[in-house]
Amino acid sequence: MDDLVQWKCLNNTQKLLFVESAILFESGFDIVADKVLVVTASKELRVKRIVKRDGCTPEHALARMAAQISEEEKVMRANIVLSSDDNKLKETDIPELILRILELNK
């Protein structure tokens, strides 16, 4: 956590800083974040993606997911939620997303 706090302080002149963390809440990093954006997907799709990415079994993927807080909890704790079920977030969507994030900081 100290490294993240130091990095945030060293970059405090930047308008936006992003940190990617699958275990943001479990690690306690959420207390360092001003806002949290959660990207979610159906359980079935998340399992498929983990199996494909890591070459593990679906049972192993489910066990790893069970060790994390639920998607519902992540969504409740987020400021912005994006669904990636359809993988349709396009490059043209990014400017609007950034504007939404900036609006939260006003």
Would you write up a description of this structure?
This protein has 106 residues and is mostly helical. It has one domain (2-104): Rossmann fold (3-Layer(aba) Sandwich). The protein is 49% helix and 8% strand. The chain has 6 helices and 2 strands. It has helices spanning 2-10, 24-27, 43-54, 58-66, 71-77, 94-104, and strands at 37-40, 80-83. The protein has a two-stranded parallel sheet with strand order 1-2. Helix 3 (43-54) packs across helix 4 (58-66). The longest helix is centred in the middle third of the chain and has 12 residues, at 43-54. The protein is globular and about 45 Å long. 3% of the residues are buried. The mean pLDDT is 88.
Strand order of the largest sheet: 1-2
CATH class: Alpha Beta
Structural class: mainly alpha
Assign the CATH architecture: 3-Layer(aba) Sandwich
Continuous helix count: 6
End-to-end distance, in Å? 26 Å
Q: Tell me the strand percentage band.
A: 5-15%
State the major sheet.
2 strands, parallel
Number of strands: 2
- Could you spell the SSE succession in H and E letters? HHEHHHEH
CATH superfamily: P-loop containing nucleotide triphosphate hydrolases
